Amino acid sequence: MTKDQPIQPSTLDEQNERDRRRYFRIEDRVGLLIVQLDAAAEARLVESLETPSSREGLLNDLHAIRELHLPERRALEYKFPTVATYIKVIESQIEALAQAIGDGENFPNSADTSACLSAQGLALDWPEALALDSRVELRLTLFPDRVHIRSLARVVRCDKADDQPGYRIAVDFVHLREADREAVIRHVYRLQRLQLQAHAEEAFEARYAAKTLPDKPKPKA
């Protein structure tokens, strides 16, 4: 599309939806490793993230390709269900291999850090101060699917915590592969959906319990 061509409404809607999804946030427990970088290390990290053969985001790349060809997959499931089932088996085997490769790339393997997560970055409590506007490497593991995210990030906040030792920090993703960003968005959506379902079930149970309580006896005249 050239700059002289008008942008179609559907294109605008899709862009607005993508922008809106990036700002959804969720409280989560993640595995997180933060490494402070100098200029040379930052350049090496950017080069690594731009390498198509990068192994850290292999599983996220596979998921992105699958989402891209979702219409064809649905057509195949409708016309040739047996073939579609066999393809799913092969996909699961490939994903298991990609997961094993990612697990060997020095990512955290336990959900030991509470964070507020979005596709733009995250905020969390951290034991040491980080210089404002400095660049750091993030190695992030999202559970329970063990989604691996590696990113260059910028420190946008670092305040001394008032009620506990350590600091309250916030970092924005500066260099994040698009497949990894989509993986974060899918994770945030999934947790939001689970939380909404849990709240709805709690509300239903509360209403049901209120209806089944015995009526209080009326006082005698």
TrEMBL record:
It comes from the Bacteria. Pfam families: PilZ. GO terms for molecular function: cyclic-di-GMP binding. InterPro entries: PilZ_domain. Residues 117-189 form the PilZ domain. This is PilZ domain-containing protein. It comes from Allochromatium palmeri.
